[in-house]
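Something for you to look into today, if you have time. Could you write out one complete protein record for me, on any chain you like? Leave the record below and I will have a look.
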Amino acid sequence: MLKRTFRYILILGAVPALILLGSFLFPEKSYAVISILLVIFACIPFFISFENRKTSVRTLVIIAIMTALSVAGRFIFSPIPFFKPVTAIVIITAVYFGGEAGFLTGSLSAVISNFYFGQGPWTPFQMFAWGIVGFIAGLLSNQILRRKVIMIIYSLASGVIYSFIMDLWTTLWSDGYFNLTRFLASCATSAPITIIYSVSNLIFLLILLKPIGKKLDRVKIKYGL
């Protein structure tokens, strides 16, 4: 119970605090330092959640594979704006391996793929956005797997969550502080993009959840994960 509480505090408290601290107090180039610290913070809850070293190493290999698939998917679909399989793969990872694994996969997917798409002060916000989508999916894993309507609702909601966090970055970047009027305007302006992104999450999840899920189930049974 104590370990779980610490993991939740780290993900839901320390990580957002670090991002906001970097936005308000440090120069723009500090995003690289913040990104590195976020990777470290994302790894801590994942490793704390495992007692068995052999099991944790095997699971880490799966996380690396899922992250690679996520990054590759973002590359492959880069010609199609806002239509990416990243969120779906992060959700699938979280559903089968827990919220901590989902948070780690989402964070790593953002920072690694941005070596191609471009690093910047937006990177920590993308890391947290995809990470928290994965973390929440882990909490809802049973519902997502057993009730299709929950899977549909969350796949659409995940696009809203991601856009909400990135609109927050847009507001802080523009004004240097939180301006509610600008934030609401940013949300309204990005609404069409949010809709496309949410629908793409649903499409990719409908396509990928079952085939990838079957393979992950086999791996879990074979290696006792």
About this structure: Residues 31 and 121 are 5 Å apart (CA to CA). The radius of gyration is 17 Å. The chain has one domain: 2-223. The longest helix spans residues 191-223.
